[in-house]
Design goal:
Elements: H1 2-5, E1 19-23, E2 30-31, E3 34-35, H2 39-43, H3 45-53, E4 57-61, H4 79-86, E5 93-96, H5 102-110, E6 116-119, H6 133-140, E7 145-148, H7 159-163, E8 169-172, H8 174-188, E9 194-198, H9 203-213, E10 219-222, H10 227-233, H11 248-260, E11 264-266, E12 270-274, E13 282-283, E14 286-287, E15 289-291, E16 300-304, H12 306-318, E17 321-325, H13 338-350, E18 353-357, H14 359-372, E19 380-382, H15 387-393, H16 399-402
Helix pairs in contact: 10-11, 12-13, 13-14
The structure holds adenosine monophosphate (AMP).
Length: about 400
């Protein structure tokens, strides 16, 4: 697939001493000027260290949050990230208070091999999200090579991901390569049986990937809020549970197609219920469990129940390749976290080829690793991109990847 055609940083022979512009994903949580979680910064270190080894002058750029222009809100400045990066690399890190302009050019001209310059938030510039061709050209004029290592933004066609790549040799960084290789290997050579577990709030967000997995996967397990659209389309009463009526036809078609393509779609057999999101339906001080065909009119399903956990665990036991995206319930509330955490724990025990994508699933996995004192087995690939992972797995083109140069 794409990664085989695309050039990566390893394919450039004359990197030594070059000026290299790298699009990274430093969209990290910052509070009171301090980086709160540096996972994304650390994910870019292999590429940064590779460029340091090659004596390159390294120019980094990233977006941070969604600034509402024309205001330049200070809370979206990347300056704290430059400070944080100083602790993670064995070289000098400088910061430019602008993306492009005289100051950036002056700072680049002073840059010595191995040194790093981080540019200010790409999204402070109105041309970024519009993929303004002039901005793309200007960015490209800063360097000899462009490296895209921001896997999480490959599905966006912006000036710093797509526009810039038109004007100079543009290649994938080591994180992008690792991610795409993992997803490609899953899509191309999955050891059967294949299981996909989908959860989360909206079926409309995931119907495309569900349809792609029909015929490809042997089993699809559906949990989370979107399970109720499946149940409603089968005629089950769902009370006040989350539902997307506009998706009923699509879901019915998916269920039909799955039958003809030998993909078993498993929906929950029981749920933990609540009166609403904040008021649990208690029985013996615990959220009441009901069968999927007996959800009371005034209740909503908020997590999968014990029978469903057991069913989904059995599917995990049978599968040799697993893709998981989306929580099984409202796992942010401790009363309804069991379904999601039990999937995470079972996957950690199973240790088969697994891809986990999406912020909530990854968060649940990390929570389980911490609570159980476990470490991540090498068979599990945790994808750093939510939207990008889903789009790629659904078979969509990622503009940021398409924009990179092909191998000769
Ligand atoms: P998504 O971004 O579509 O993956 O959805 C994630 C959100 O779905 C989380 O915030 C969950 O709280 C929510 N969610 C999961 N299960 C349910 C449910 N049964 N009812 C309402 N919301 C749910």
């Amino acid at each position: 697939m794409d990664s085989e055609r695309k050039m990566s940083i390893m394919d450039i022979n004359d990197l030594e001493n070059k000026k290299v512009l790298v699009r990274v994903d430093f969209n990290v949580p910052i509070k009171d000027g301090v980086v709160k979680d540096d996972t994304r910064i650390r994910a870019a270190l292999p590429t940064i260290n590779y460029l340091i080894q090659k004596n390159c002058k390294i120019i980094l750029m990233s977006h941070l949050g969604r600034p509402k222009l024309p205001d330049i809100e200070k809370k979206y400045s990347l300056e704290p990230v430059a400070e944080h990066l100083k602790n993670l690399v064995d070289t000098d890190v400088f910061f430019s208070p602008e993306l492009v302009g005289e100051e950036t050019r002056a700072l680049i001209s002073k840059l010595k091999p191995k040194q790093i310059l981080l540019l200010e938030n790409t999204r402070y510039n109105p041309g970024e999200t519009k993929n303004d061709p002039e901005l793309g050209k200007e960015l490209a004029s800063l360097a000899d090579y462009f490296v895209n290592d921001a896997f999480g933004t490959l599905h966006r066609a912006h000036a710093s991901t797509v526009g810039v790549a038109k004007h100079l040799t543009a290649v994938a960084g080591l994180l992008v390569k690792k991610e795409i290789d993992a997803l490609d290997s899953f899509l191309k050579n999955p050891e059967k049986p294949v299981l996909a577990i989908f959860g989360g709030a909206k079926v409309s967000d995931k119907i495309k990937i569900i349809n792609r997995f029909i015929g490809f996967a042997d089993y699809i397990a559906i949990g989370g809020g979107m399970a109720f659209t499946f149940l409603k389309s089968k005629g089950n009463p769902i009370g006040k549970s989350l539902v997307e009526d506009s998706m009923l036809n699509e879901v019915e078609n998916a269920l039909q197609t799955a039958k003809s393509k030998n993909t078993e779609i498993h929906v929950p057999k029981d749920f933990k219920i609540g009166h609403d999101l904040d008021t649990p339906f208690l029985e013996n001080n615990m959220p009441k469990v009901v069968n999927a065909d007996s959800i009371p009119n005034d209740a909503m399903g908020l997590d999968i129940g014990p029978q469903t956990i057991s069913d989904f665990n059995d599917l995990i036991d049978k599968a040799h390749s697993i893709f998981w995206n989306g929580p099984m319930g409202v796992f942010e509330n401790p009363l309804y976290k069991e379904g999601t955490l039990s999937i995470a724990e079972k996957l950690l025990q199973k240790k088969t080829k697994t891809i986990i994508g999406g912020g909530d699933s990854v968060y649940a996995l990390n929570m389980t690793l911490k609570e159980k004192g476990l470490s991540l087995p090498p068979e599990i690939h945790v994808s750093t991109g939510g939207g990008a992972t889903l789009e790629y797995m659904a078979g969509n083109v990622l503009p940021g990847l398409e924009a990179l140069d092909n191998l000769a």
